[in-house]
């Protein structure tokens, strides 16, 4: 079974919140029956096709590329953490309802993750509760920062406390990257900024003692964790040489073993490094469907890693993702 943990979706008929409320809400402007532009503040943020809103088109691609299940999550530009919390909650509900409806229509092909307004903890917890206990979504996707605040900011304490209590898996995806004013050329925001941003988010959850306070919190990072796996020894060295600023009892590498990572790093050498450092049980297959940087076919880097045993390959291609999302693997395989 192949489970693509990292895919993005948006409702085709998402309302124009920019017209309703003003501000930089993403707007889907159709260019034809099978294409659109995602517009932000009057500028074209991204060109997309019907792959990004049509479940039928997605299933067609899944069948062609050998994917059994996609895990659906919102496009990060729709997080809208900058907005009024009540307006952002309204926007989140539209997306979460759409994802839940898509899963309900095709329950054997899709699993859903929701989004919540992280700029206000009470609102975020309320919508997370609705996502999990009313809509039946299996986790929450969050950004790597919220309006420039790293994930160890005290304002997020209640959210992480309740995510652990309710056993809600979290998928951390880069957005609003640090240093983005230095990335206007070469699309470096995607190739350099996002991996660096993800590393900062992972390091913040560890060094800020979030993972120490919440040892059962389930967190998965996009894009193979970005540059985090490769700077982890440097984080350990910092912990060793600066004891006066420590907030955690053990070195960062101890807490990093709790993390999960998707496999989207394109290279078997890098994938093997992830496996050697964190264990094959902590890697889930993810392609970033349907965007340009996605892996085609999904799971190619896993197929191209010769050292994997059949047990490891099966786990990374699908079983690990199901376990991370608290889904019974045997029941899913018997469907």
From TrEMBL:
| Any Pfam family the entry gives | Amidohydro_2
Q: Which residues form the Amidohydrolase-related domain?
A: 3-326
Gene Ontology cellular-component terms for this entry are: cytosol
Q: Which Gene3D superfamilies match?
A: Metal-dependent hydrolases (3.20.20.140)
Instruction: Provide this UniProt record's keywords sorted from A to Z.
Output: Decarboxylase, Lyase, Metal-binding, Zinc
Pathway it acts in? Secondary metabolite metabolism; quinolate metabolism
Enzyme class name: lyase
Gene Ontology MF annotations: aminocarboxymuconate-semialdehyde decarboxylase activity; hydrolase activity; metal ion binding
Q: What is its EC number?
A: 4.1.1.45
Q: What are the GO BP annotations of this UniProt entry?
A: secondary metabolic process
Tree of life domain: Bacteria
Q: How does it assemble?
A: Monomer.
PANTHER family in the record: 2-AMINO-3-CARBOXYLMUCONATE-6-SEMIALDEHYDE DECARBOXYLASE (PTHR21240), 2-AMINO-3-CARBOXYMUCONATE-6-SEMIALDEHYDE DECARBOXYLASE (PTHR21240:SF27)
Q: Which family does it belong to?
A: Belongs to the metallo-dependent hydrolases superfamily. ACMSD family.
Q: Please report the name of this protein according to its UniProt entry.
A: 2-amino-3-carboxymuconate-6-semialdehyde decarboxylase
Q: Which organism is it from?
A: Siminovitchia acidinfaciens
């Amino acid at each position: 079974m192949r489970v693509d943990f990292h895919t993005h979706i948006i409702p085709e008929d998402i309302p124009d919140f920019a017209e309703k409320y003003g501000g930089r809400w993403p707007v889907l402007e159709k260019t034809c029956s099978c294409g659109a532009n995602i517009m932000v503040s009057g500028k074209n943020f991204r060109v997309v096709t019907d792959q990004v809103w049509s479940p039928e088109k997605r299933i067609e691609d899944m069948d062609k590329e050998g994917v059994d299940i996609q895990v659906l999550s919102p496009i990060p530009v729709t997080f809208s953490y900058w907005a009024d919390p009540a307006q952002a909650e309204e926007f989140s509900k539209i997306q979460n309802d759409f994802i839940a409806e898509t899963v309900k229509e095709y329950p054997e092909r899709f699993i859903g993750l929701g989004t919540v307004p992280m700029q206000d903890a009470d609102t975020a917890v309320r919508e997370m509760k609705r996502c999990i206990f009313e809509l039946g979504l299996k986790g929450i996707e969050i950004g790597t920062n919220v309006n420039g605040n790293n994930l160890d900011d005290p304002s997020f304490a209640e959210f992480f406390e309740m995510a652990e209590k309710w056993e809600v898996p979290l998928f951390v995806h880069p957005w609003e990257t640090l240093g983005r004013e230095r990335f206007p050329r070469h699309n470096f925001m995607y190739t350099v900024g996002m991996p660096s941003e993800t590393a900062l988010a992972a390091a913040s959850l560890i060094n800020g003692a979030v993972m120490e306070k919440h040892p059962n919190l389930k967190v998965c990072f996009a894009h193979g964790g970005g540059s985090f796996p490769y700077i982890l020894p440097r984080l350990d060295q910092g912990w060793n040489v600066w004891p006066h600023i420590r907030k955690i009892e053990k070195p960062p590498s101890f807490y990093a073993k709790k993390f999960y990572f998707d496999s989207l790093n394109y290279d078997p050498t890098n994938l093997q490094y992830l496996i050697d450092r964190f264990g094959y049980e902590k890697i889930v297959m993810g392609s970033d469907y349907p965007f340009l940087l996605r892996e085609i076919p999904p799971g190619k880097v896993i197929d191209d890693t010769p050292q994997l045993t059949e047990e490891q390959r099966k786990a990374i291609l699908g079983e690990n993702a199901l376990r991370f999302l608290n889904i019974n693997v045997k029941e899913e395989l018997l469907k």
